[in-house]
Amino acid sequence: MPEVIGVDVGGTKILALQLRADGSLGQETRKLTPRGGEAVLDAIAEAVDSLGPVKAVGVGAPGLVDHAGILQFAPNLPHVVGLPVRAGLEQRLPGVVVTVGNDATCAGWAERLLGAGQGSHDLLMVTLGTGIGGGLVGGGELLLGANGFSGEIGHMVVDIHGPPCPCGKRGCWERFASGSGLGRLGREAAEAGQAPRVAQLAGGDPVAVRGEHVTAAALEGDAGAMDVIHRFAWWVALGLANLANVFDPECIVLGGGLAESGGVFLEPVRTAFNDLVEAAEYRPPIRIVLAQLGERAGAVGAALLARHASGAPAATPRP
Ligand SMILES: [Zn+2]
């Protein structure tokens, strides 16, 4: 029997995997994310059943997860509001203890214990994908906040006149520093005729430019694409510097789809960060590194949280 199963619920797919007691990964399975909350719970339960039997399951969900395991708000899962993930899954999976957390928080915990953040007691996990997620570790513990809603770093407002965000505000950091932000900067450059190679990779249509076209051209060494990467890196670094001023981390781990694409922006981010963080010359350097666990980080972290949670009651003496 695998010790625990971790599940990462994304906007497009659900990944479930087995985590063994020694930290190694067993079997895994993927499903498309269905529409509607109850259908999502059904799909998670089926994925777990196909890998089970198991005693504990951890779930990383994309949005605001409270301490009762209710997904209160999930901008990337349409029509999902106030979904009782823990209760709904424990009903579908009798005898299984379910732990639920935010997906980026789970990813941060996985990188802290098994990935790029090993040994760091104070670290920030920043997932750069379609949006931006965050996981905060302070003093070796996850910082979850009063309601479990901490780490919504993508919605720090960095430009009050900036583009509108699906959350309802304007100029959120993730409008500039996520994959969609990179795509927007790339389109602007292509439309201005400053990034012909990027436009060419998008089939000649500047309007069709996405982040991956910028990254691909930059990896070829294209100067126009590198200009876009440097502008993008400044926006990434701006948010990281704000966070570093607040949290004083030892290490910042960059994950998500953008980080997996080779990290062509890593050095420009480090340079811009040193310009933007308070008193760079008077503080120990803050390491900015790429995540190591890739697309499995969320599921692995969810499994680790489930293991921690299921272990805790057994360690408590019972009357
Ligand atoms: Zn927002």
- The count of domains is 2
Assembly category: single chain
* Uncertain residue ranges: 312-319
Adjacency order of strands in the biggest sheet: 3-2-1-4-8
Under CATH at level 1, the class of the largest domain stands as: Alpha Beta
Q: Encode the helix/strand succession as letters.
A: EEEHEEEEHEHEEEHHHHHEHHEH
Describe the overall structure.
The two termini are 29 Å apart. It is globular, with a radius of gyration of 20 Å. The protein is an alpha/beta fold and 319 residues long. The chain has helices spanning 37-51, 85-92, 103-114, 174-177, 179-191, 196-201, 211-219, 223-247, 257-260, 266-276, 297-315; strands at 4-9, 13-19, 25-32, 56-61, 64-65, 70-73, 81-84, 97-102, 123-128, 132-138, 141-142, 251-255, 287-290. Mean pLDDT is 92; it is low at 312-319. It is built from eleven helices and 13 strands. It has two domains: 4-107 and 296-315, 2-Layer Sandwich (Nucleotidyltransferase, domain 5); 119-292, ATPase, nucleotide binding domain (Nucleotidyltransferase, domain 5, 2-Layer Sandwich). β1 and β2 (13-19) form a beta hairpin. The strands form three sheets. Strands 3-2-1-4-8 form a five-stranded mixed beta sheet. A five-stranded mixed beta sheet has the order 11-10-9-12-13, with helices on both faces. A three-stranded antiparallel beta sheet has the order 5-6-7. The structure holds zinc ion (ZN). Zinc ion is lined by residues 155, 165, 167, 169, 172.
